[in-house]
């Protein structure tokens, strides 16, 4: 009474690779179609929008730059103290240039007062220049009045 064993291989047929190949081809077609649709501007707008922006650039606003005298400030106590050489320019609306130029002595005074009041350890911080620039700009705007000075551009910041 020996039972003959049938091989299990016959029971489990290998599946066809046809659905896998069809899925792969359809996936590639969909990816290619999606790329073309986004590249040509069918999905997110026309591709000609960039060309229109480049053809007509916006005119620059009427601004001028007023140079501020260099400020040299001693930092720290005694002989071991360091020196800061600070040079900047003010971005001013074109019609206000003469008004801001007449206020330069007050602007330099405000800059000297602020820079001398700083602690020597504050210059070691990597964000010190950004913080000083913001503080100086706000103080200069208070001295000159609103809407006269747009920005403070630091052209030289040397710490010896």
Automatic annotation (TrEMBL):
It is found in: Cell inner membrane; Cell membrane. InterPro entries: FliL. The chain crosses the membrane at residues 20-39. It is a single-pass membrane protein. Its main location: membrane. The keyword Cell membrane applies. GO terms for biological process: bacterial-type flagellum-dependent swarming motility; chemotaxis. Coiled coil: none annotated. It comes from the Bacteria. Belongs to the FliL family. Controls the rotational direction of flagella during chemotaxis. This is Flagellar protein FliL. The lineage of its organism: Bacteria, Pseudomonadati, Pseudomonadota, Alphaproteobacteria, Rhodobacterales.
